[in-house]
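re: ur question from yesterday

yeah so i grabbed the chain u mentioned. its 483 aa long if i counted rite. heres the sequnce exactly as i have it in my notes:
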Amino acid sequence: MGAIIAALNKKGDNAVGAAVAMLEILKHDGAEAFGIASPNAVKIEKTIDALKEKTIKSPIIIGYVLSKILDSDKPQPVMLKDATLAFDGRLYPNITDVSDAEVVAQKLQKKREKIVKTLIQRVEGNFALVVAERNGVVAGRDTMGLRPLYYGESARYIALASERKALWKIGIKNAVSFPPGHMAFINNYGFKFKPVRTLVYSKAKPTSMHAAIKKLQTLLQNSIEERVSGLKEVAIAFSGGLDSTIIALLAKNSGVNVRLIHVSLKNQQETEDAEKAAEALGLPIYSYLYEEEKVAELLPKVLWLIEEPNPLKASIGIPFYWVAENTAKMKLKILLAGQGADELFGGYKRYVEDYSRYGSERVQEEIFNDIAKMYENNFERDVKICNFHNVELRLPFATYSIAKFAITLPIELKIKLIDEKMRKIVLRQLGEKIGLPPFIVKRQKRAIQYATGVNKILKKLAKNNGLSQRDYLERIFQTILKR
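ran it thru and got these C-alpha cells back, copy pasting raw so excuse formatting
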C-alpha cells in the first residue's frame, strides 16, 4: 500500500522533477521506498534524495510511495511489456504471498485497456492505478472510490495523485476527485473518462424483511471474511453502536483476533456504552480518552490531512485520527470501520424528516445521492488519515454488492415513522438475528462528532475567536497552506 502519482509535461519536457516533488509531499512516516517510471524504465530507491540522483528522462512519469502493510507488499512501479504500472490498493480475497501489484501486472501484460476495464468491472477490492504508456497514461479507480485519487492540469502539467497536496505542489490548484468506477485516458490534450461500473439509481424492489435480512447477512459476512482473510488480528473503530458492533461480532465469528479501539473526549456517555457493548461481545476494548485542549492542538494537522476546511469532516476527522494513531501504536496494521452504513440503510435523522414530509420516493433518491457521494464525503477523508499512520482502512459495508442491494431496498425496511421513528431497521434486525443484545440493537444513533464531544469543542474554539466554525477552520487552513 502507499500512494501513486502520474505527471505528463504538456510541452514534451522531462517530467521527472515534478514527479519527484509530488512523491516527496506524499512521504509519511513509515514510507520504505520511492519509485518513478517512464513507459520503458523504472527506478526505485529507499529515499527521495537517492531517487533525485537517478536519471530518467521522459515527459510521462508515474510514481509510487511504498508504506508496507503486508509482508507481500513490494516497491513499485512495476515493469510491463512496453509500459509501467503503479497500483495502490488491495484485491480481495488477499493472496498473502504475492503482492496485489504483481497480480495486476501479470494481467496487464496484454490488452491493457481491456484488463483495466475488467478489474474495475469484476474484481472486488479498493484500488487506484496508473499505467504509463508511450502515448500517455491509462488510469482507473474502484467502483466505490475507496482509494483516494485526484486529477487536474495547469498550463504545464496534467497529473494525478493520491492526495490533492501533491497536485498543489506542481501548481495545479483545482484538484478534482477522480470519478469512481471509471477509467481515463490521459495525454497532452487532457483527460478522456469512460464509465465502467458505477452505481445507478433504481426504484425500490418489493421484498420481505426476512429475505432482506438473509441477503444482507450473506453479503456482509462475505465482505468481512474477504477483508480479514489471511490475517491474524484486526482493529475495529468501535463506538458501541449498531454498525461497529455488527462488524465486530461478524469479524470475531470469522476467526480473526479482534481488538476494539474506542476514542473520545473525557466524561462522555459514549465511552460507558462502548465498554458495555464490548463486554457483551466478549471482546477486548482499548479506550483512549482526551482532554479538550487536544482538539485545538490536533486541528491543523487534521486539516492538512483531509485537505479542506470542512467543519463536518474536521469534527469526524479528529476522533478518527485518534483511532488510527492508537491502532498504529498497538502495532496493528488493518483497521475495520462501519463507514457507509448510515447512507446505505437510512441512518440519518434528516431521512426520517424528509420521508415524513415528502414521501418514500423523494427520500429514496436522497439516500441514493448520498451513497453515490460516500467516497467524497467519507472514504477519502478517513483513508488519508489512516495512510498517515501507515494503517490500512477496510470498510466492510462499502462494497458494490451491498450498495446495489441497499439502493433497491424499500424505504420502509430502513425507516419507521411511527413510535420511536427508528432508522436502519433491517440492520437492527440483522443485529438481533446474529445475537446482539437489545440495548445495542435498539440504541439510537449518535454521530461520532457529537458522541465524542469534538463538534462542541470546535464550535467553542470558533466562538472564542469571534468567527463562525467554517471561517475559523478556513483561517487555520490558509495558514497551513502558506507554510
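noticed a couple things. Residues 2-195 form a domain with the Glutamine Phosphoribosylpyrophosphate, subunit 1, domain 1 fold (CATH 3.60.20.10). also The two ends are 28 Å apart (CA to CA).
anyway ttyl
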